[in-house]
Design a protein that fits this description.
single chain; Arc Repressor Mutant, subunit A; 5-stranded parallel beta sheet; 15 helices; 42% helix
Length: 403
Amino acid sequence: MIKRPLYTEKIMSYVDTPFVKILTGVRRCGKSTILKMLMEDLQQRGIAENHILHYNFDSLEHEEIKTAKALFSEIKQHLSDRGKTYLFLDEIQEVKSWEKVVNSLMTDYDVDIYVTGSNSRMMSSEISTYLTGRYVSFRIYPLSFAEYLVFRKTYAEVSDPRFELASYLKFGGFPAIHLKSYSLDEAYTIIKDIYNSTIFTDIVKRNQIRKVDQLERIVRFVFDNVGRTFSASSISKYLKSENRSIDNETVYSYLAKLESAYIIHRCSRYDIQGKEILKTQEKFYLADPALRYSVLGYSPDSVAAMLENIVYLELRRRGYDVYVGKLDNMEIDFIATKQENKLYIQVTQQIGSPETEQRDYGRLLDIRDNYPKYVLRADAFAGGNYEGIKTMHVADFLLSEEY
């Protein structure tokens, strides 16, 4: 296994603490593998193998465990009577009322619990109801650009990161497609399968959606409009133009379900002058850029939006809350905040004219505070600063440790 210390080091800092460790994220982003890494780390710390219990509820081996009672009975008989038992429960959302079981085990037994999940049941109110103050959550993402380079080095020669960025954009970061060398067609076949299993298992089947074609049209609209602000009414009008009638509430419901399956991320707008989060004209970004290409096909005119997408994901990986900035009638691509830190970021594929340069830098210059401001670009350029605004190549920003 190729290590992912970005996550394992954070999670291992909570070992033997009275919190359930919950790992969430889109299907096939690496949650199950990270669980195995954590188990290996525990054994390296001297924890005996018979003190570690692992259940994968996606496996046929545990298919019969579907209720809280069955789960509790199964685990109870395998708990160690001499010292702490470390429980690893993979894709736990398949078990109804699993939160009650975990809460009971935490209360009555000497256990340390780690769970993973891939859909809305991991975001439900039941977790807060039964595990209030007793869990910490970790969002797992597909490979970052830095992780992608580490994976790629195991099967191919890696060139300059700025050149590798184009490949990362096309192939995305699902770990499964970076364990060996795949063609784009092969990679997109794998990713389309991830997409289909998420849409039809975690959304359609679980929510008993009958109008699957309607859902898929909304998905395609969102995928095709990454990096653009739009509202539910925009989607409604688009579908009506195709003679598909749908009301705004249904659109909002579908978008919420896509979020719950971690396929898309909602990015709200923030009024810089009014210092408030706006509830209209949001943006949506994808869990991985390759999802777009596997569904809609690759097109060069989508690169700018996908560059935004990977910058958004990188900021989220690093723990930032991310918003689209509004300043009068202008838009700032990202405002990223983390505790007392704040960043303003413009992302551009290239700056080909003085007008484009003025637009991208001028928006940031109009913000009257002293927080760091960046223009990130994917073309060749000279110089690093423009009136206090730092210019960086997107690849360098993704690999930087300065923010």
